[in-house]
Amino acid sequence: MTERYLIHSNRDYIGVLITEDDVPVKIELLDGLTEASVPALLYYQYKEGQRVFDDSEQIMEWVESRCFDRGRMNLDEILADMGLKEYDAWQIFKKMKGRMTNDKLRIQKEEKKHWVYSDQHFHHKRIIEMSQRPFEDLQHMETEMIKRYNALVDKDDIVYWLGDVSFANKAITQDIISQMHGYKILILGNHDWHKPRQWWLDVGFHEVTKYPIVVRKLFILSHQPMPMNDLTYLNIHGHVHHDTLDSIFHFNACVEVHDYKPVLLNKIEKDFYERKKKFKR
């Protein structure tokens, strides 16, 4: 089984550690990191241009370098407190979340994937022509969009729907939404407001709001683009369809610009940090 651990230095996302069957096999780091952000044993290769590390021995050497010493006098007591029968660097590293007292680096297991998804316009007769969508008719569009969505989203994932969902009646909308995976949080769009909040809960959304949502102290999720006066945040929005704003502090989540699929929040975060670094230069 593959698992992913997000690596952060201070508040910044810097990469991911990937395991197979609970064994670390790869580290992938972002471009443009400072020496203080890069794991020490990897910095020389990183400086030479390497961004992917798949030498398991090297990775485990780094993992163990962040654990307490095997020769500690009270080792058995410490291991017992951690629920371990023997010294296992990777299990110790996970329990400590990769932390050391003299730096800001930490890891966090990616338990559930988070996605954003906007402006589906299910059962909107004119949307294929208006947005030049590559579908023969509404049935083809809805069948294909459900298929593409479920190919990415797992049943336990969290999906933020950013509005303008459906022009259909309650029964048809419920039938569509019931086929789509994940815990679904809806921010109402301008074509959704005329229906009461309970209507959207009844058709299958788990949470419904008409207000923007702040996520991870980094993203402001909304239907329409918002003015961005605080440049520490990224506004993820819909509404504009193909008309993406020329701004590094806005992200267009409309299906037309993402092959009619939801977008992974971690990818947006990674790309945002990379764009901000270039913007500061």
Short description:
With 281 residues, the chain is an alpha/beta fold. The protein contains nine helices and 14 strands.
Model description:
The two termini are 40 Å apart. The chain has two domains: 2-109, no CATH class; 114-280, Metallo-dependent phosphatases (Purple Acid Phosphatase, chain A, domain 2). It has a five-stranded antiparallel sheet. Strands 9-8-7-6-14 form a five-stranded mixed sheet. Strands 10-11-12-13 form a four-stranded mixed sheet, with no helix packed on it. A hairpin with a 2-residue loop joins strand 2 (12-20) and strand 3. The chain contains nine helices and 14 strands. It is α/β, with parallel strands linked by helices.
CATH class (first level) name of the largest domain = Alpha Beta
* Percentage of residues in DSSP E strands: 15-25%
| CATH homologous superfamily identity of the largest domain | Metallo-dependent phosphatases
Report mean pLDDT, rounded to a whole number. 91
Q: Give the H and E element order.
A: EEEHEHHHEEHHEHEHEEEEEEH
Give the uncertain stretches in residue-range form.
none
- N-to-C terminal Cα separation, in Å? 40 Å
**How does the major sheet shape up?**
5 strands, antiparallel
Query: Remind me, CATH topology of the largest domain?
Result: Purple Acid Phosphatase, chain A, domain 2
What's the overall geometry?
elongated
Question: Given the helix and strand composition, which structural class is it?
Answer: alpha/beta
Number of helices: 9
Helix share bin: 25-40%
Q: Per CATH, which architecture of the largest domain?
A: 4-Layer Sandwich
**Major β-sheet strand ordering:** 4-3-2-1-5
User: What count of structural domains?
Assistant: 2
Rg measurement, Å: 22 Å
Beta strand count: 14
